[in-house]
Amino acid sequence: MAKYFEYAAQIGLVMLILLVMAGLAFLSFRDLSHYWAPALLPPTATPRPTMTPTPTVTPTPTPVPEKPAGPIWVVSRIEEGLFHENGFVYDIATFTNLDKPSVTIRARCSAPGWPSPEIGHKFTINEYRVMIPIEGIQSSLQRFWVLE
């Protein structure tokens, strides 16, 4: 039975040595720089805050966009037989914008046989730059193609 205690003591001693070696290995591979670094540095004064210039934004006035011309155009002048093309004679009409009278456009009639509008008749312009009477597409008045 003495041999049994002798073997148990040897196994316990080996286990204790292995446990100490594992603990030392664990401690040696840990990063302890954050524990020791403040102790190794010489004492210094607390840093003062320094003023750093920051960029400033200078406000610049933004241009106000000009109000676009309104959708209603009025016939201000019709010049008959002024435009000749492919053997046809076309009328040229000058339209003035109702909202901005300083804005004018010139357009030629699209079908020479259709009746011309009276001076002062109102038209709208569509996305294809065709002047259509304010009554709509069902009107029998002349349509005009914008020249400018």
Describe the fold and architecture.
By secondary structure, this protein is an alpha+beta fold. Helices cover 24% and strands 28% of the residues. It contains 2 helices and 6 strands. It has helices at residues 2-29, 33-40, and strands spanning 72-85, 88-97, 104-109, 122-125, 130-133, 144-146. A 6-stranded antiparallel beta barrel has the order 1-2-3-6-5-4. β2 (88-97) and β3 (104-109) form a beta hairpin. The relative contact order is 0.12. The mean pLDDT is 80.
User: What are the low-pLDDT stretches, counting only 5+ consecutive residues below 50?
Assistant: none
- What is the terminal separation in angstroms? 120 Å
Helix content: 10-25%
Q: Report the strand count.
A: 6
What about the largest sheet? 6 strands, antiparallel, barrel
Overall pLDDT metric: 80
- What structural class do the secondary elements suggest? alpha+beta
Blueprint of the fold:
Blueprint: H1 2-29, H2 33-40, E1 72-85, E2 88-97, E3 104-109, E4 122-125, E5 130-133, E6 144-146
Antiparallel strand pairs: 1-2, 1-4, 2-3, 3-6, 4-5, 5-6
Give short descriptive properties of this protein.
148 residues, six-stranded antiparallel β-barrel, alpha+beta, 6 strands, single chain
